Amino acid sequence: MRGLVLILGTVLILWVLWDAFETILLPRRVPGRLRPSRFVLRWLWNPWSRASELIHRRSRREGFLASYALLSIVVLLIVWATSLVVGFAMLHWGAGSKLAGVEGMDGFAGDLYMSGTTFFTLGLGDLHPMSHTARVITVIEAGTGFGFLAMVIAYVPVLYQAFSKREVRTTMLDQWAGSPPAAAVILRRCFESDDPSVVTPLLRDWEVTCSEILESHISYPILCYFRSQHDNQSWLASLSAILDTCSLVIVGVDKIDPFQARLTFAIARHALVDLCQTLAVRPEVAEPLEERERDELRRWLTEAGVTMSGGSEADRKLDELRELYRPYAQPLSRLLRMPLPSMLPPPKARYNWETTAWAKTAPDEAH
């Protein structure tokens, strides 16, 4: 019996340490399903997101969903630490519980207490090992606890640094696309300039941003659940708006070279596809752009001074481009509770920079 517990304790420790290594230190997508971190991430999110449906006010609902990311990190660290403490206690018990010091504290309860004080480096000394095997286990656990603490200290700042970099781009898109962002607004902004090709530097910046999202969110999937500062913004909505803009430019917009749009489209779609794989989300059939929406889009852009390619060939090409990324964006939107924007701005849309704490806006001329 003790031999079996010794083996199980060793397996538990190695399993948790490997999961922590993959989650914190390994900079790549980890496809393994039997991982504590993956279980905690999904186990917490499903009831948490369902509970958010009971909150009708959007700002409060977004605040509730935003607290999930930090909560999941705390729970994951607790699960890791608890599993390691229990695992080392199993090693002590399997090795014969060779401990001495406190009267009445024997058996697995004493092993668990010894493991906890050692892992968290308390150094109380009221219970100490009496055999060579117990001493070796104690030393290994103390080193493991110290290393675990160091990894945790390094883990959280990395997450917030990646989150902050992503949110800078998301916030800056407000001036271009509004909030929620819309591709039609981006194109209108471009034609407010004497040179509509000003969209090229924006798309070039988002080519870099999509690469950063691809790298950081695959390495740390919990970043996908981090929400923006404003409840009408999200990294997924911004990425979708950029893909919509690229699609329109690729189809054909007068005075805008589509070369940069093709590059940004490729890396943005790459990010969506890989994130679906990382979060174990299956693509679905894309919702088509209805004829009424297509006509309204062309009318709105024409009134804004934007000349787009027309005809059945242009419509077919736009549908083909949307089918390359919408099947991945839609399930991510449903999973993360982040609505996807339309190509057109919603009625009475305004920019976040115009809004004050008293819900007033700047004059319309500021548009």
Indicate the topology.
Blueprint: H1 2-25, H2 36-52, H3 58-94, E1 99-100, H4 107-119, E2 128-129, H5 132-177, H6 183-191, H7 199-219, H8 235-252, H9 259-278, H10 291-303, H11 312-336
Antiparallel strand pairs: 1-2
Helix pairs in contact: 1-3, 2-3, 3-4, 3-5, 4-5, 6-8, 7-9, 8-9, 8-11, 9-11
Beta-strand content: under 5%
What is the tally of helical segments?
A: 11
* SSE order: HHHEHEHHHHHHH
Order of strands across the widest beta sheet?
1-2
Instruction: Give the fraction of residues assigned to helices.
Output: 55-70%
State the major sheet. Answer: 2 strands, antiparallel
Averaged pLDDT:
86
Total count of strands:
2
Distance between the termini: 75 Å
Number of domains: 2
Task: Give me the secondary-structure category.
Answer: mainly alpha
Radius of gyration: 27 Å
* Low-confidence residue ranges: 360-367
Q: How would you describe the overall organization of this protein?
A:
The chain is mainly alpha-helical and 367 residues long. It folds into 2 domains: 2-153, Orthogonal Bundle (Helix Hairpins); 162-366, no CATH class. 66% of the residues lie in helices and 1% in strands. The chain contains 11 helices and 2 strands; from the N terminus they run H-H-H-E-H-E-H-H-H-H-H-H-H. The chain has helices at residues 2-25, 36-52, 58-94, 107-119, 132-177, 183-191, 199-219, 235-252, 259-278, 291-303, 312-336; strands at residues 99-100, 128-129. The chain has a two-stranded antiparallel ribbon. Helix 3 crosses helix 4 (107-119). The termini are far apart.
